[in-house]
Write a structure and sequence with these properties.
Number of helices: 7
Radius of gyration: 19 Å
Strand content: 5-15%
Shape: globular
Bound molecules: pyridoxal-5'-phosphate
Largest sheet: 5 strands, parallel
Helix content: 25-40%
Distance between the termini: 36 Å
CATH superfamily of the largest domain: Type I PLP-dependent aspartate aminotransferase-like (Major domain)
Structural class: alpha/beta
Number of domains: 2
Strand order of the largest sheet: 2-1-3-4-5
CATH topology of the largest domain: Aspartate Aminotransferase, domain 2
Number of strands: 5
Length: about 200
């Protein structure tokens, strides 16, 4: 059989053997519910607290309390986008995103539009890059969120996140950067960002 070359690692890839080994006990020995008060539960809770600390360090979060674990990317996008939008209602009701976003991000914003929010969708170039100038022009005084993926799940483009969010017009707007592949290869150096991984 000819060797198979797998070219879709950006959407899913084998688990790093080191991560696999680190997780092994939690699939078989330390399987307690971290909310339970018995010994196996407390052990799982300690492990979860350690993982939360490590994730906080990875994305440069101010505190482990900023880290929320979800069942997947869709749930994370919903939580980040609706969470920021609702929490910022008093400041504004406008969101900015791009044409290259995952459906879970677009659908979250479409839902918010039925709840009184408005949005502007900016284009990407043929490589999937967002022009920071387009973001600058899309931002209004009512903008509360710039939502985009950090690394594209299909073509692998890594957005110039700091440039997009750090533009003078973007200053003060929280940004949500997704997706699953981003945390693996990129480190956040600036805040505030809502990373969903
Ligand atoms: C940017 C982005 N958001 C959300 C998702 C959906 O993730 P899930 O299938 O875990 O819900 C993906 C999956 O590829 C993604 O790339």
């Amino acid at each position: 059989m000819p060797p198979r070359i797998y070219l879709d690692h950006i959407t899913t890839t084998p688990v790093d053997p080191r991560a696999f080994e680190a997780m092994r006990p939690y699939f078989s020995e330390v399987f307690g519910n971290p909310s339970s008060l018995h010994q196996p539960g407390l052990q799982a809770r300690d492990a979860l607290a350690q993982a939360r600390q490590q994730c906080a360090k990875l994305v440069n979060a101010a505190s482990p309390d900023e880290i929320y674990f979800t069942g997947g990317g869709t749930e994370a996008n919903n939580l980040a986008i609706k969470g920021v939008a609702y929490a910022s209602q008093r400041t504004g009701n406008h969101l900015v995103y791009s044409t290259a976003e995952h459906p879970s991000l677009r659908e979250s914003i479409a839902f918010l539009e039925t709840q009184g929010f408005a949005s502007t969708c900016v284009p990407v170039d043929r490589h999937g890059f967002i022009d920071p100038e387009a973001i600058r022009q899309a931002i209004t005084e009512k903008t509360v969120l710039i939502a985009t993926h950090h690394a594209n799940h299909e073509i692998g483009t890594i957005q110039r996140i700091a440039e997009i969010g750090g533009s003078p017009a973007g200053k003060g707007s929280p940004s949500s950067a997704t997706p699953p592949p981003a945390a693996a290869g990129c480190r956040s150096t600036s805040r505030p960002w809502a990373f969903t991984c």
